[in-house]
Amino acid sequence: MALWGGRFTQQADAKFKYFNDSLRFDYRLAIQDIEGSIGWAKAIQSVGILTESELEQLIAALKEVRAEVEPNLAIILKDDAEDIHSWVESKLIEKVGDLGKKLHTGRSRNDQVAVDIKMWCKVQAVALQERIRALQERLVSVAEENQNSVMPGYTHLQRAQPVTFAHWCMAYYEMLERDFSRLSDANKRMGTCPLGSGALAGTAYGIDRDLLARNLGFDEATRNSLDSVSDRDHILELLSTASISMVHLSRFAEDLIIFNSGESGFLEMSDRVTSGSSLMPQKKNPDACELIRGKSGRVFGALTGLLTTLKGLPLAYNKDMQEDKEGIFDALETWQACLEIAELVLVDIQVNTERTREAAQQGYANATELADYLVAKGVPFREAHHIVGEAVVYAISKKEPLEALSIAEFQQFHPTIGDDVYPILSLESCLDKRCAKGGVNPQRVAEAIAAAKANLAS
Ligand code: ARG
Questions:
Q1: pLDDT, tens digit (0-9, with 9 covering 90-100), for 240-272
Q2: Any idea where the Fumarate lyase N-terminal domain is (predicted)?
């Protein structure tokens, strides 16, 4: 039964009905729709639309509906209602008869859907924060085990300066920390409740909307009814937070794919997160990471899609806004899955520290150290940079690392270079010197790990 049959004499075309209906995706809002309805029943009881006992009956019936679907929302899909709001109302009427028809007094599906999706977003934000924390914890523990795993750091995908695998892990920890805080910020702005805004102009019943808001877990009621029914900022904020985080996860995946390649051989991913080739028996493909990288596309797509849908809409509600749902449902599910799989990828990851160390030693990653050494001997940095460039060209021609050059060879480039140059060219010295806050000095990294652990424990 449609909610709005009175004005119509003809049946909707079946194709249009399918096109227009949203139950097949908005069934996910069932719990929020029921909670919102309980809140609304209390609100209209307070202005005399329902008696105490009618309110009790309605609440009991709504709770029954909730208990029936909560274990598996997908059972709703066997019914043929237009959307989740009509579905809940029809279940209610099945249970309590005509009394159920009173519930929609003073309410519109416009403020109803607005409150449902906002409550759903609040729940999701918290669940996603938990997933982010779990991945951060894993990163910190992998960092802790790999404080001595020296590897090349890159710029332009060229070996640049040595870092440690721990420092690499902690870089992703920081990105996730920002994602976490973006969710907290978004959550603060999700504290206002749109229910009681009516179709667009406000409800004609003198209810206490702030009380209604608090009953539904919000801080207060929204302040403008036109805005309330047409605002989807919270969905956009979650989609942009998801998109930024997917950029992080995609880069994480890409780094690991490179590190896992035969060319790098820096690490091996566990059999639990890799797949074989149907043709080439030797292969072990990093599918988990490739899918994380690949799935970022659909999350960005959901953000771009909703921005585009909303940009030209006149106030207030328009049916276009029903298109907000599939994108946010899919994007948050995808983001959540990627956070989980990223964590799994890290579980049994094996860093080949011999190989990473060897790679860090190649590629003249210590050239900056030699320049700094010359600076300490009074050579201006620009000049030192040039001298070291020449020394690197010479070492390349001999197929040797810088530290294999003799003093006599070094002195062709600058007379001040002495025996004390060798210790500063070592990997350990390269790391040790980067001792200002945020640098790869092992002590600093250990402090970063300790600070992260304290943050995660708090
Ligand atoms: N399914 C609709 C949506 O998701 C619910 C609101 C319908 N409102 C209306 N005036 N038809 O947006």
A1: 999 999 999 999 999 999 999 999 999 999 888
A2: 6-301
Per-residue pLDDT averaged across 277-283, rounded?
Answer: 75
Closest CA to 250 of 382, 350, 341, 384: 341
By CB atoms closer than 10 A (0-12, 13-18, 19+), residue 130 is exposed
pLDDT the model gives residue 274: 84
Report pLDDT for 77: 98
Give the closest residue (by CA) to ligand 1 atom 12: 322
| Rounded Cα gap, residues 72 and 77, in angstroms | 10
Sign of the alpha-carbon dihedral angle for 183, 186, 192, 198: negative
- pTM, two decimals, is 0.94
Which two structure tokens, joined as six digits, stand for 325? 């749902």
Is there an atom of ligand 1 within 6 Å of 45 CB?
no
Structural domains in the chain plus CATH codes: 14-105 (1.10.275.10), 110-148+161-351 (1.20.200.10), 359-457 (1.10.40.30)
Task: Pick the range with the lowest mean pLDDT from 9-23, 224-238, 266-280, 319-333.
Answer: 266-280
Three-class SS state of 47: coil
Query: Helix crossing, 233-260 with 324-347: angle to 10°?
Result: 30
Q: Residue 1 pLDDT more than 70?
A: no
Nearest to 144 by CA among 377, 385, 452, 400: 452
What would the two tokens of residue 147 be?
A: 């404080």
What is the whole-number distance in angstroms between the Cα of residue 224 and the centre of ligand 1? 19
Residue 127 backbone class (left: φ over 0; alpha: ψ -120 to 50; beta: rest): alpha
The residues annotated as belonging to the active site are 156, 277
Q: Which of 346, 351, 360, 330 is nearest to 431 (CA)?
A: 360
Q: Counting atoms of ligand 1 from 1, which one is nearest the CA of 84?
A: 1
User: Which pLDDT score, from 0 to 100, does residue 273 have?
Assistant: 86
3-state secondary structure of 371: helix
| CA–centroid distance, residue 184 to ligand 1 (Å) | 28
- Three-state DSSP class for residue 192: strand
Phi, psi dihedrals of residue 120, rounded to the nearest 5°: -65, -45
- Which pLDDT does position 245 carry in this prediction? 98
Mutate to test the pocket of ligand 1, among 28, 109, 310, 320 (most ligand atoms within 8 A of CB): 109
For the residues 224-251, what does the mean pLDDT come to?
Answer: 98
Q: How far apart are CA 386 and CA 446, in angstroms?
A: 35
